[in-house]
Give the backbone structure.
Amino acid sequence: MEENNQAFHSGFVAIVGRPNVGKSTFLNYVIGQKVAIMSNVPQTTRNKIQGIYTTDREQIVFIDTPGIHKSHNKLGDFMVQSAMSSLNEVDAIMFMVNADEPRGAGDNYIIERLKKITDRPVYLVINKIDLVHPDELLPIVDSYKDAMDWTEVFPISALQGNNINKLVTTLSQHMPEGPKYYPDDQVTDHPERFVVSELIREKVLQLTRQEVPHSVAVVIETMKSNDEGLVNIQATIIVDRSSQKGIVIGKGGKMLKEIGSRARLDIEHLLGSRVYLELWVKVSEGWRDKQGILQSFGYKKDEY
């Protein structure tokens, strides 16, 4: 027996924009828990991360894409290709920009590609409005309004939640009638191993800051539970220079211990279990430009 006569609506929404505009912060806020890592280091997101928002009336699958930027290596090529390919797979697109940064060449590069999309709604989302005075907001909106014919413009703060409910409601109204693609309690399509590796990588980025920028990958070697419910995880942190290995390990292993301690707390929250986490650090010189290594780390090119 149906609970109500309302049709169920579902669809996919891509979040695109330059690096570090707050796409992951938005996704985590809407989903209600961490499914995408956050860092003040640009280009943190490398894979397309799907976050699933479900109510009794709709299901929106948000795709948090890597920041679109000028690529300098094969990893960068993968990230940009991953972001651009998502535009062909969705029912709506959110173009996110920073309120506290002027419109630049990177924004214009993305806008030119968005202009070619005529069969789906494209929303301009101006994030980080909490960082600017209200009087500064209107000129920012105007600078983008002239660029193309947006379906609608939403100034938001992903960090504080300002105007996000209105944005999600509008997206829901434009989703087509469709099935429930994922169970009610599923918040991401990525396996637990992927999310665990991302949580560890997030702590490396947060704690080493600019010293170890984008030279880090994390590989989960083993992940299994024992009879007492303790999850044993062994993971390797990959860097591309010996000097970076020393930074990640730290004096007397202090940095590596802090990375593990912080990551373990997030992983325990994710899994709902006690976790024993062992970390190693390995040097693989130039891994970001080696296709075979990139694929072994999970950075596989999209198939068209």
User: Anything to note?
Assistant: The first helix runs from residue 23 to 31. The CA atoms of residues 230 and 273 lie 6 Å apart.
